[in-house]
Amino acid sequence: MFVIVADADSVRGFSQGSELTGSFVGLVSALHPDHRLAFISTDDPSGVLGPVAPVDPEFNLFRSDVDAALAASATGGSSEEIFDALSQAFTVLGIEKAPPGSVVYLITGGSSLDGLASLTDRVSPLAARFGENGWPINGVTLPDTSPEVAEFVSGVVAESGGSAFELSVPEGLEALADSMLGGSGGGSLVGLIQDVLEPQDLLTSSVTVTPGTGETTLVFFKEDPFGTVRLSNPSGLEVAAGDPAALYVEESPHVVAWKLVDPEPGRWKLEIRGVRGRVSAWHVWSNRYFLVLDSSALLPVDDPSTLIAYASDETGAVELTQVRLFATITRPDGTTLVHEMNDQGVDGDAIAGDGLFAVVVPPLGQEGDYRVDLEMSFLEFDHRISTQSTIRVRNFPVLDVTAERIDDLRPGERTKVASVFVHVAGEPYPVSADQIIADMQSSGGAGGVLEIEPQRLFGEDTSWLYDVYFTPGGEGLHTLTLGLSLDYAGRQYSHLADSIFPSSTLPPQPVELEPVTEVPIVAPVVEAEPEPPVSTPPEPAGFPWWVLVFPALIVLAALLLGLNSLIRTRPFGYLYTDQDELVVDFSRLRRHPVMGLLLKNYVNGKELKIPGLEGVWFRFGGKRIGLRTWRSTGSVRVNNQPLIGEATIQNRAWIGTHGKLYSFLLSPPTPRIAGSQADDD
What are phi and psi of 438, to 5 degrees? Predict the structure, then answer.
């Protein structure tokens, strides 16, 4: 709430006092249209005008009454009237239950005040009471104020905790406006233009309103009470009172202002003509957009992490175009990494164009607090918004799997295939058996029974050492993946260890041999042939060894290529979409003869003709299949983890790229057997 106390005799005694005071009232109204305003004249301290807010319909009547009070004839009042007016202001603030931060503006001036010394003695205790209630008195002096009156105002201001200003154009009004905005948390004025004009001059300027601007106030100060000032929106339409975008329009002799709500983004045009003297234009705005880092505040060490952020307003996330969002990560040692986030459905972003920006960052290998600075720039405007957040990187529980016996398991025979150690940075961390997740995939419907048993219990039902037993249900190849799923440090956390690949075979069956019947051996009869005549060969002139060298090299190269082809694993497996549609049969993939011969066990993603897999290689080595990339874009994901370097592909592994999912199978899909136990049909 604001209360303006005007020393009527001082205002009327200055040639432009009424115009300046009216402009001051207009300035307060324009900057705070939703705040209540009261006016008290020393002519009639009990005749309080208001309080009323500028946005209320009755405010026009209030302004008319203020102008009438300032234009009334002088009454020849005394200094006692200032005390009475301030006392009335204190009463009004109390009746209205004005909160701390409400302000009283005392407008006075002139060369002297009758009984100034006694007035000071009476006003000082009252000013102190204003200060105790959090209602400072700001002194506003007219340009002709004498040093004695200025000293009196300074004393009142000091007792109440207020500030002193000079009511001049444009400097004094600019300082008052900046103080009003700063005191209410509304920001500060930003200069647009300052100039000295003649009546024949035409001055134009523009201000850019950015997307997300909730409110903006444009204020124009002019030394000359005459002249016109116009504001046009980006569509070229002039803004006037009653405009849907204009919450409040103020036109007074020295102040013209517009308070706009949800203004149209773009360039707004300001036009000034017919003004003599100094002019200045200013604006202040508030943007309703702010940036939010939506990722967990706690991340595990040495795991790739996905950062997610978005722009929000009071209703939630907003979808923006023509923007770029950067995340600057500052490590505990002070080094920084800058990552551009995207909303294009790649590199960690799930859905393109949903307003959520994401980026996959490499493993953060150092414990500590990381600062994340988000900055969004609007490409069509010279405008940025930013925010700062903190993420903590800590060691999380991990699960180390040591393979035991995994080859040539016997169907129906229980065998220990692995041991498990759960720890945090090498320190044992006990978990319950139900917090260990296990997934067993078997070829040929072999199935089997998987059991996880603690080596010894720590407490009631937890341990950090477990044994894994497997009883195959039949002959086949198996893929066992173990991991953790638990609540740690206040967040749900999952961790997968490297898979192991047990195999089960039936024992060899003895083969019965048929008896061998002896056959008598009869020596063959050899007829003697006559010996050929002996002739003496001519002396050799030298053997042409090159005739043998070149064929030998060709034969050796063919042998090496053939050996390479024999020892290399042929591609195998299938790639299906998430709708179980076959995309690639690796065993029947038509390849270039040279690629098939020289790189028999490698398949380039380009050969699959699947968008997004151009930069990866499938490597087949025995029973192991690897997927490798030399890029660091993170555009390919394996089992919802970004592909960085090389990853092992198991049966039913998920491969994601360009917003699509593919499933890698060792054999064509068959009905899956629920649970970890399956019987061989």
Answer: -135, 140
